[in-house]
């Protein structure tokens, strides 16, 4: 089973390097962020899925909200910016991922909506504990806020992360993201 976990991490990291510009080179460097962000460091969300995954998302939201740098506020089915859900897909682009985030940023550079999928079948297949799943949700919420992948070993934004929670550098990056004008990055 360890062989599968190592293979998963290498595949995801390789994909990350190809898809994301600005990967941090050392463990002490700041977590990078992209050019897009929300107008304010606050979004509304809705959650769907089993009670287990609702609690995973709730724990990840509490962790980010407790940093004081960004606020996730529960919305309604009619009025929300972010959808948090699960998928059992294990094919195509999802075949070995633990989670994935889709964001929409019109030409003005501000996000207008986002969708996060925790890939339940893969989380089960690769024996992610509840704590691991919470870290994956924290990672995906980092993307929702505008953070990119980091190679810092202690960052929640490490591409193949399942063991790290939110680091000081991750919190600093969120603060900087929302004090840096849209269109500019770290």
Automatic annotation (TrEMBL):
InterPro entries: MetalloPept_cat_dom_sf, Pept_M10_metallopeptidase, Pept_M10A, Peptidase_Metallo. SMART domains: ZnMc. Keywords: Hydrolase, Metal-binding, Metalloprotease, Protease, Signal, Zinc. Residues 1-29 form the signal peptide. One of its GO terms (molecular function) is metallopeptidase activity. Residues 34-181 form the Peptidase metallopeptidase domain. This is M57 family metalloprotease.
């Amino acid at each position: 089973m360890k062989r599968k976990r190592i293979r998963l991490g290498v595949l995801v990291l390789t994909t990350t390097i190809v898809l994301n510009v600005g990967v941090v080179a050392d463990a002490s460097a700041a977590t990078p962020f992209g050019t897009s962000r929300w107008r304010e460091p606050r979004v509304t969300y809705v959650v769907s899925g089993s009670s287990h995954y609702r609690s995973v998302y709730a724990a990840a939201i509490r962790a980010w909200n407790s940093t004081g740098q960004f606020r996730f506020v529960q919305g309604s089915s009619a009025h929300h910016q972010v959808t948090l859900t699960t998928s059992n897909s294990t094919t195509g682009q999802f075949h070995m991922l633990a989670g994935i985030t889709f964001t929409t940023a019109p030409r003005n550079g501000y996000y207008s909506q986002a969708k996060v999928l925790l890939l339940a079948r893969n989380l089960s297949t690769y024996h992610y504990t509840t704590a691991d799943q919470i870290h994956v949700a924290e990672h995906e919420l980092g993307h929702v806020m505008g953070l990119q992948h980091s190679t810092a070993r202690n960052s929640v934004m490490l591409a193949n992360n399942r063991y790290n929670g939110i680091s000081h550098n991750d919190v600093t990056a969120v603060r900087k993201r929302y004090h840096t004008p849209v269109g500019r990055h770290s």
